[in-house]
Each structure stands twice: as C-alpha cells, then as structure tokens.
Amino acid sequence: MLEAVDLAAVRGDRRLFAGLGFSLLEGELLHVHGVNGSGKTTLLRMLCGLVVPEEGRILWEGKDIRSEREAYLRNLVYLGHLGALKGDLTGVENLRITETLAGEAVTEDQAMAALQDVGLHGHEDLPVRVLSQGQRRRVALARLALSQAGLWILDEPFTALDKASVAALRARLENHLKQGGMVILTTHQEIDIDTALVKQVALG
Q1: Cβ neighbours of residue 29 under 8 Å, at least 6 residues apart?
Q2: I need a labelling partner for 159 at 20 to 30 A (CA). Which of 33, 50, 62, 139 fits?
Q3: What are 121-153's pLDDT values in tens digits?
Q4: Strand, coil or helix: what is 132?
Q5: How many C-alpha atoms does 124 have within 13 Å on its Cβ side?
Q6: Residue 201: beta bridge partners?
Q7: Is the confidence at residue 157, as pLDDT, over 90?
Q8: Four-residue CA torsion sign, 88, 92, 93, 97
Q9: What are the tens digits of pLDDT across the range 70-101?
Q10: Is the Cα dihedral 134, 80, 130, 170 positive or negative?
C-alpha cells in the first residue's frame, strides 16, 4: 500500500497544496488532476522521492520511503512528461540503459520486442532525436512492458499519442491493474479503465 499523509508543497513563496492525503491499494488507479501550475508534477515527483515534502510523509507498506528508499524504488517506475530519453541513443539503447539503472537486466531482443509492441517496428535502431514526439513518447512507454515494478507513476502518458496508441496504453494499464498493480497518473483526458477502482485527487 502507498499512503500520503498531510503532504504540503511550496514553490517560491506560493503554497501549491497542503494537508493532502490518500491511500492506494493493489488494483487501484489514482487520477491526479488540476489546472496548470497547481502542483501535479510536483506531487508525482514527491511520490517518487525526487522532491522532499514541505510537510507530511509518504509511506510504502507502512514505512517512510526516505528510510526504505532502495526497496521502494525497486517497486516503482516513473515516466515524466519528457520521457528522460537520450537523443543520440536508439530506442533499444535507451531502454536497456534505463532498465539497467533500475536494476533490471534487459536483453537487446527484449528491448526490440517491447518497442515493436508499442508500434515502433522498423524504428528500433534509429536515434531517438529523429523520431516524432509521439514516437518518442512510445519509446518511453515501452518501459512498462519491461518493468516488474508494481507501482507506475505516469505524468501525462497519453500526450502526443494517436488513437491506436491511446487504446493500447489503456489496455496495458487495465492489465497491470488486473494483476494487482497500482497506477498514479495525470491526464487531461477522461479515465476510462475497466475493472479499476479509480480514485481522484484534485489540486488547485
């Protein structure tokens, strides 16, 4: 279980949110929404341990993530809206390096299969910088096919995707939740995920 207790965030002299709390169990999805600048990305980065809360705590299986950082990060995959891709590397190279840093060994064949699964057949060996925005987004999302993490934290994952890719991502999210995974995401689109208990956090 993931639990947020009385979280607060400050940017400059402006308080983004305070007293924020929620819990997330296996098979549940949390939709974080709000206007631009309300703190959605800050909250997601906070839940990943990349931003320290001004107040409050984040608990994983009842323990503060700051004291159990290594164990927590092994159970987490975070995809920011920029994708954290290296432009001079191919999709295969990006996936293999990213998963190695996450502690998961991925073969070239596995990386190729993950890219083909998101519709990038024939683009696996191209430098990411020559791909379109939607294709770069799909390279980042291919990590979901490779990761064994139970908690997925996704910042605007549907951005720049075509209709077929949106449907494929929704299917992947549904499958992850059916298998007992957890998802936290921001999106301006409607959440239409079958079998999931969808919770809401509204900022701003």
Answers
A1: 173, 177, 182, 183, 184, 185, 191, 193, 196, 197, 198, 199
A2: 50
A3: 988 889 999 999 999 999 999 999 998 899 999
A4: coil
A5: 18
A6: 32
A7: yes
A8: positive
A9: 889 999 999 987 778 999 999 999 999 988 88
A10: negative
